[in-house]
Amino acid sequence: MFGARQQTSRDIFLHCSLLTADEVLILPVWRIFHNLFRHPLRRFPGPLSHGASRLPIVAQLWRGKLVYHLEVLHARYGPVVRTAPDELSFLDTMAWKDIYGRRVGLTSGVPEIPKWQRFYRVHATKGQTTIMNADTELHTRLRRQLAQGFSERSMREQEGIIGGHVDLLLRRLREGRGTVVNMTTWYIWTTSDIISDLALGSSFGCLENQDWHPWVRQFASSSKEFTYISGLRMLGLDWLVGMILSKILTLTAEALKKRIAQGVERPDLIEELLKNLKSEQSLDFESIHGTARSLILAGSETTASLLCGVTFQLLTNAEALERVKKEVRSAFSSEKEITLLSVNSLSYMLACINEALRLYPPIPSGLPRYTPPGGAVIAGHDVPENTVVYIPPVAMYRTPMHWTDPDSYHPERFLNQPDFANDHLDALQPFSVGPRNCIGMNLAFAETRLILARILFSFDLDLSLDSVNWLKAQDAHFLWRKPALNVTLIPVPIPN
Prior knowledge:
Blueprint: H1 2-37, H2 48-52, H3 55-63, H4 66-77, E1 80-84, E2 87-90, H5 94-100, H6 117-120, H7 136-147, H8 152-157, H9 159-175, E3 180-182, H10 183-200, H11 206-209, H12 214-234, H13 246-262, H14 271-275, H15 285-299, H16 301-315, H17 318-331, H18 347-359, E4 369-370, E5 376-378, E6 381-383, E7 388-390, H19 393-397, H20 441-458, E8 459-463, E9 476-477, E10 479-480, E11 486-491
Parallel strand pairs: 2-7
Antiparallel strand pairs: 1-2, 3-11, 4-7, 5-6, 8-11, 9-10
Helix pairs in contact: 3-12, 9-10, 9-20, 10-15, 10-16, 12-13, 13-15, 16-18, 16-20
């Protein structure tokens, strides 16, 4: 009897083992067959390997080369490419509105194509809702409350906060006059100090201490880890994702609690959220915390990348550098005249910034959406439901489909010059479009113009030889992994 039971147990174990082997070996093969020959996206062009599995695209993401890989795929396959079994990438300018706009091309009555939550929800936040991943109703309420802090009036009131940090940056740079300085670090410190002051009520103090604040250091060192998290989530392996962001969450929560405890009104970005903290329409602390953290993430590294990008492009294009220096120095007679408002008159500098955004978009990765039930019409294509769709910025901004001499730096293309009359300027949307475009766009432009104008007014700049290939050396792990941008600063004599 015992032997019979033992035999039965072995039979059951063997049967289960065979079933497990079938699942491991047969199911993936069936899935690949389905993706290649039965999936509704099989009619779209793209490599067979990418249509079979998401692994090739995730591998490129982890290598930091996905943005360049997508550029190659579009050059080979055209304006619409199947980049994974359930994923499409678009280069048509119509796709901006169709993917990210409101009520465009939808057959389901959904007001917008929702964000792909595998990309936007981070495991370490335990499902925390922020402005980055909120549903339409909550996002609208959040955005309405935040809009006050990003208004033109608020930015004028924030001039003292922003200008104070820029003043300190200029003082620090003068202390190192005539020597080589790493502008990547100085730009990150400056933008991090500004946005932390505006979003948490206190500065990280990087410029004051001339050192990395733990939050800033943690975020700067974690960009590659964020990419691994995204890749694992794209593969459906959420259970492998660790608590990488726990330290960042703790630091920002403590700063926000201190800001609330102060009970003082100030012209920052979250004042309106805090005013409503105890009202029926308010968010809970965790959502306000998550939103404040999102503002810091979106407003520090990205603005620093824009400053690095325009600085590098100017220092490698002598004619543009001389022209923008002349514009700045002829517009102002002293540093005190350079304000958030007065820099709006610098039309050529704005063109320089726009062209830098084209060649070096601060967020180089596409922002994926997920088509709702009923699907959507995107750039004239019927796209079935449950499809990941996006626009890859680097490929969009460097394709000959939309740009004359796309790999070269030409600010004149944004000044209605006839040589660039055929350029599709509406292809450039570095802050996205629609109801979920970047709420901090005006702040980022104002910050960049103020800092750049102050530096160009005060210094002559020379790029170090070891930074000549600064742009070519970079990987993109959701954000750019920026190496040192070494520059020699020579102070310009202050006019009497």
